[in-house]
Write a structure and sequence with these properties.
heterodimer; A: alpha+beta; OB fold (Dihydrolipoamide Acetyltransferase, E2P); six-stranded mixed sheet; B: alpha+beta; Four Helix Bundle (Hemerythrin (Met), subunit A); 5 domains; globular
């Protein structure tokens, strides 16, 4: 379970300078995304995942993170895309989410982790109302890196516990719903 | 900081005392002559006042003082105990409770206006019970325990007499060899009795060693005898013991002996654990009546928590005795010295320790981690195939298991305490709604996890109030229906297959099935063509906003509550069901897991995943033979020794990918008398399961109740068997209904 990078060490740097924040960029289905580094606790190798039955595909399962059980979300499925193949470079990014005043760790499966970048606030554009092929409320903004755009995700929306729990319910009740139809 | 901690202790103690006080008060309602109960109430009030004084909590001291005065008069039979007084005292108890809670919330807080008004009102009511000689205002300016209630002392001084010290006092210690020498100590005492009257005799077993060290042929006893005889002189008494002169030490004090002689006697006595009062009685310096009188006076002047020197300053037993000329100061000093020694020994002997709950939780967590780490170690040991290592790890696992059990045992508490709180609730509520209802409690000694006990109080309260308000009919209706006029509410608890069942039952009107259905239709909870079992209909009352009561009362009927009850219980991994017969009564059964932390599990494999079933539910495991596999393609039951065993294919239920293994097994589980089979690929045996919650994300997932970490570090899921069965039942019913409509 070797940690590739302890994001916490970078986190101290993040708030250091005014007007710019640090982001972790990663690949998902050939597309680049960024998330603010402050929410990231650590990045671990993909593996030892236990599937939880009767859950929708967007929830891959749970892992044992040093004694606590952490759910793992497949972000590609959450974006309504195809789940990616597991490769040597597949990682789980552990992110701390605040939900209803409680903090919870959630793992996110990504294809590849790229790098930690600094993006000045002035280089963050408004969310386009359409075109990104992702729900608008999942997007925090569009960051400009070397003239290319990268989608900065609104982590608390993408990984909203309340919303995913309801999704799960719909998934769990699927059979019943089918039978009732 | 230290004072803060002491204050916390005071608050905690006060809560306990108030609870005890309430219990005794309620007991008095049925048995008004229970002297013990009156004594207990008095002591509770008194202790709170005394300790409150130490912290300078003037409000509590002032109020409690008046209550205590009244209680004292009750104790002396100056005021008769009746229902009104009990009600008033209960209100006073609540008021003291409120004052204590206010201190708990903010130690510097002044009572708010409302509380103060209540206090004054209660004090005015108490006034009529107070002694006519009471010269104090309703709020006496008593600020600390050091102040002596003058009027009380005066009253007692009149009734307290002088010491009847015209008895001989004989202090007798037999030597160990007395029996071997053929003497029977009792014979001498009997002989003594012929000479006159043995007024008091106290046997002193203090020299008795532990059972293992005891020699049955030795005599370890000593006696303190108060003897009254006409025309008896010292020589006569000595003559009685002539034969054992060599084998005993005898001290005889004539009537009206000099004080020095008593003092000397106390010093010479070998025993040290005897309380001052007993000592004085043993010495014949006091009679029991005088001791009681003195003890009561001592207790009036609190000295709780004071060290010995402080207690000397405050009015203690010794001083009171001296003041009332009962004994001489020198005598008291000698006895006090002994009492102090005895006190110090008592502290060491104390059997109970108060522990903070979070420390205990931390211990349980660590034990949980240890169980997981132990499992990992055993797994590694098995791989090495080293027998010695294997043996050592299995010893270790057994120890870990024992530690786990005893750690969990620390958290187990009896449910009785929770139940007995309802005595008061039932009493108050029945008065309020004008029904005659009694409470019957059984299974109070059933133990369950403390954290469960804490969380079950509110749901129980809802259920009890609901039963009283809606369940039990008014007396007139009850009589019409041929039932006793007094309704009964029954609280019961017992263990059943790894869970604890708590029942709230009443002998009231029962649930009205038709009315519930009508209401449910109106609310759109069910459709008209649905067929529902009784259980399902009764279950509807747990839906949010559901109430069939025509009138909304103060207590219940607003439809909030029952859904909260169910939510709270489900949050504890429990279930709730209702049994009801119209006209006979309703019983609500709450089924809860015994513990929330660690269980004995049975590990099984389905596909690549592992699952845990609570071991208590597993009845047996059988192989699903090839023939049976063929047979059961279409149906989901087998013949288990002549009975039908329906089963659930976990592989299908969990939509596990891939083909089933070459062999399949059935784990037969039992829940609430219902048997079912779970078809699995692999049986992996018993496993100590540390329950890790799955978190909110899986909050709505039915069929999985939690997770645990295996020795390999992988996560295994814990199956919620009842939910799985329920799911299978629903699924099949709905599929059938669906296929029929096609």
């Amino acid at each position: 379970m070797g940690a590739i990078a302890r994001a916490e060490q970078h986190a101290e740097v993040a708030g250091g300078e005014e007007g710019q924040s640090q982001y972790l960029t990663f690949m998902l289905g050939g597309e680049m995304f960024a998330i603010p580094i402050l929410n990231i606790k650590e990045i671990i190798e993909y593996g030892h995942l236990t599937t939880v039955p009767m859950m929708p595909a967007s929830i891959r399962g749970v892992i044992n993170l040093r004694g606590s059980v952490v759910p793992v979300v497949d972000m590609a499925v959450r974006f309504g895309r195809k789940t990616g193949d597991v490769t040597r470079r597949t990682c789980i990014v552990i992110i701390e989410i605040e939900s209803g005043g409680e903090k919870q760790d959630v793992g996110v499966v990504v294809d590849t982790v790229n790098e930690v970048l600094e993006i000045p606030d002035t280089e963050v554009e408004q969310t386009p109302s359409f075109g990104a092929r992702i729900r608008a409320d999942f997007i925090h903004g569009m960051g400009k890196i070397n003239g290319n755009f990268v989608i900065i995700l609104a982590v608390n929306h993408v990984l909203s516990i309340d919303e995913m729990a309801v999704l799960e319910y719909a998934g769990g009740a699927e059979m019943e719903a089918l039978a009732l139809a | 900081m230290e004072l803060d901690q002491a204050l916390q202790t005071f608050i905690m103690e006060s809560r306990e005392l108030l609870e005890a006080m309430e219990e005794s008060l309620l007991g008095l309602e049925s048995e008004p002559d229970d002297r013990d109960a009156i004594g207990a109430i008095f002591r509770a009030a008194h202790t709170i006042k005394g300790s409150g004084g130490l912290f300078g909590l003037d409000g509590i001291v002032a109020f409690t003082h008046v209550v205590e005065n009244v209680l004292d008069r009750v104790r002396n039979n100056e005021v008769p105990i009746n229902a009104d007084l009990i009600a008033l005292l209960l209100s006073c108890r609540d008021h003291i409770g409120m004052l204590v809670e206010q201190i708990a919330a903010d130690s510097a807080a002044k009572p708010d206006h409302e509380t103060e008004t209540t206090g004054i009102m209660l004090l005015n009511q108490l006034k009529s019970y107070q002694a006519g000689t009471q010269e104090q205002s309703p709020l006496p300016a008593i600020t600390s325990s050091q102040t002596k209630p003058q009027s009380q002392t005066a009253v007692v001084a009149q009734s307290g007499g002088t010491v009847e010290n015209d008895n001989w006092h004989i202090s007798l210690r037999f030597s160990h060899d007395v029996l071997r020498n053929g003497m029977d100590p009792l014979a001498f005492i009997r002989y003594l009795d012929n000479m006159g009257d043995i007024v008091h005799i106290v046997t002193l077993p203090d020299a008795m060693p532990f059972a293992t060290d005891m020699d049955p042929e030795s005599c370890y006893l000593g006696f303190e005898i108060d003897f009254h005889g006409e025309n008896v002189d010292k020589a006569t008494i000595e003559g009685v013991f002539e034969f054992v002169r060599e084998d005993c030490s005898l001290r005889i004090l004539p009537p009206h002996s000099r004080i020095e002689e008593y003092t000397q006697l106390i010093d010479e006595l070998p025993e040290d654990k005897i309380r001052l009062g007993d000592l004085l009685v043993n010495c014949g310096a006091l009679t029991w009546n005088e001791l009681d009188e003195a003890l009561r006076l001592q207790s009036l002047n609190a000295e709780f928590g004071c060290d010995a020197s402080a207690s000397r300053d405050s009015g203690n037993l010794g001083q009171i005795l001296v003041e009332q000329n009962m004994v001489q100061p020198e005598l008291v000093d000698a006895a006090l010295g002994k009492q102090k020694l005895a006190k110090e020994n008592k502290v060491q002997e104390s059997k109970l320790i108060r522990i903070q709950a979070d420390k205990l939780d931390q211990l349980i967590n660590l034990v949980g981690e240890m169980v997981i780490a132990g499992a990992a170690t055993s797994l590694l040991a098995q791989r090495t195939r080293d027998p010695a290592l294997h043996e050592s790890t299995s010893t270790l696992s057994r120890l870990v298991e024992e530690i786990r059990d005893s750690a969990l045992q620390l958290r187990m508490v009896q449910i009785g305490e929770t139940f007995s709180r309802f005595n008061r609730v039932v009493r108050d509520v029945s008065k309020e709604i004008g029904k005659d209802i009694g409470l019957a409690i059984s299974g109070a000694e059933t133990e369950l996890d403390k954290s469960v006990v804490e969380k079950i109080g509110d749901p129980l309260m809802h259920l009890v109030r609901n039963s009283m308000d809606h369940g039990i009919e008014k007396s007139e209706i009850r009589l019409q229906r041929g039932k006793p006029a007094k309704g009964t509410l029954h609280l019961n608890a017992y263990h059943e297959s790894g869970s604890i069942v708590v029942e709230v039952g009443d002998d009231g009107g029962g649930l009205n099935r038709a009315r519930i259905l009508a209401k449910a239709l109106e609310k759109g909870l069910v459709t008209a063509n649905q067929t529902l079992s009784d259980q399902e209909v009764y279950g509807l009352i747990f839906e949010a906003g559901f109430s069939t009561a025509e009138a909304v009362t103060n207590l219940s009927g607003r439809g909030v509550g029952m859904d909260v009850v169910r939510r709270n219980i489900e949050a504890l991994r429990g279930t709730v069901e209702i049994d009801s017969r119209e006209g006979v009564g309703t019983t609500v059964k709450i089924r809860l897991p015994l513990t929330l932390a660690i269980i004995d599990g049975f590990l099984l494999g389905v596909g690549s995943a592992s699952y845990v079933v609570p071991l208590d539910m597993v009845m047996e495991c059988i192989e699903l033979s090839e023939a049976e596999r063929q047979e059961t393609r279409e149906s989901n039951y087998i013949n288990l020794r002549g009975t039908v065993l329906p089963f659930i294919r976990l592989r299908d239920q969990f939509r596990e990918q891939g083909k089933a293994g070459r062999r399949e097994n059935i784990v037969v589980v039992q829940y609430v008398g219902q048997m079912a089979g779970l078809v699995v690929d692999e049986l992996m045996g018993e496993f100590q399961t540390v329950i890790k919650p799955l978190g909110k994300l899986f909050g709505n997932l039915k069929g999985i109740s939690g997770s645990t970490i295996l020795g390999s570090g992988e996560v295994a899921l814990i199956l919620d068997v009842p939910a799985l069965i329920q799911r299978a039942v629903n699924k099949e019913a709905q599929q059938l209904a669906y296929s029929q409509t096609k």
